[in-house]
Amino acid sequence: MTSVADANRAFFDNMSQTIRQDPIKAQWIAGINDKVTNFLQSHIDWVGLSHTKTNAPDRNIRHLDYACGDGVLSRALHPYVTDTVGIDISPLTVSSYNTTNASLNPRHPIRAVVGSLLDKSDPNPVSLSTPEFFNFDIVTGGLAFHHFEDAAYAAERLRKRLRPGGVLVLTDFLTGGDMLIDDDGNVVEGSEGDHYSHIRRHHANGHGHHHGHGHEHAPDTTAAKGDIKKHTMDSIVVTAFSIQEVKDFLANAGFVDIDVRVMPEKVFVDFGKKMLRTIMFAKGRNPGDGKDEL
C-alpha cells in the first residue's frame, strides 16, 4: 500500500512541474502566497521577530521552513532572520526552492534539502542529524499539516528542532471556512462549509478524519459523486482544522503559549471546484529555560 509520505512525494514532484506549465493555476496560487506573506509580515510582532535584529544585531536568527514548498514562508520571514533552511519530501520541489531563492540573500544563503522528520520508523534520520538542523529560533509549516498522518507527532518532531523558547508557526485551512464560487465568479451566498469533505476515516492521531480536498488536489470529476482520486485520498489526511484541534495537537506536542489567528481575507482556489477558503495561523512556544523571547 502506498504511504501518505510516498503519495505526497509523488504528488508534489508532479505539482512542481505542472504549476510552471499552467499559468492560470500559477496565478491564483501566487495570489494565495501574497496574502499569506502580507498577513504574516503585518503580524510579525505576534510572531516575535520584529525586534530581533534591533535588539541583538550580531545574533543569528535561525529559521527552519518544514515542508517548505518553493519557499513562500522562507521569503516572507527573510527580512527578519539571518539563516534559513528548508526541508521538503519532494526532490523536484527542493530543486525549485533552491533555484527560486538562490540570489535572495547572498550573505546568508537560503537553501533547502530533501528529507522527512515524520517517518516513525526513522524519527532521527542521519541526513538531518547534524547541528545545522537543530536549535532553530523559529520553525514554520505552510499549509502542510493537513498532509501529515499525525499532526501531534509532526508538531512534536518539529518542536525537537527548536531551541528552548523558540516558536513554531503554522498555517492551514480552517474548518467550515469554505465558500463556493458560481460559474459567473460570484460567491454563492449561504454556501459556507467544508466543500472538500468527501471521505472520512479516523487517522493516526485519533482526533481527525480523512478527507479529500482542493488545496493541491482536485476532486475526480469523472468519478461518482463523493469519490476522489486515489492519490488525493492517500496524500490528504484532513481538509482543514478547527481552532480547538490546532490548539489541542500543539499542546499534545508539548508547546505552550499557544495562540491562533484567522486571516480575515479568504483565498481563491480552483482544483475542479471554484471556492474561497479560510486560512489560519497558529503559534506555539517550546518551553524555555529563561530564554523565552525570540
UniProtKB/TrEMBL annotation:
GO terms for biological process: methylation. CDD domains: AdoMet_MTases. Keywords: Methyltransferase, Transferase. Gene3D superfamilies: Vaccinia Virus protein VP39. Pfam families: Methyltransf_12 (PF08242). Residues 202-224 are annotated as: Disordered. Residues 202-214 have a biased composition (Basic residues). GO terms for molecular function: methyltransferase activity. Residues 64-168 form the Methyltransferase type domain. This is S-adenosyl-L-methionine-dependent methyltransferase. It comes from Westerdykella ornata.
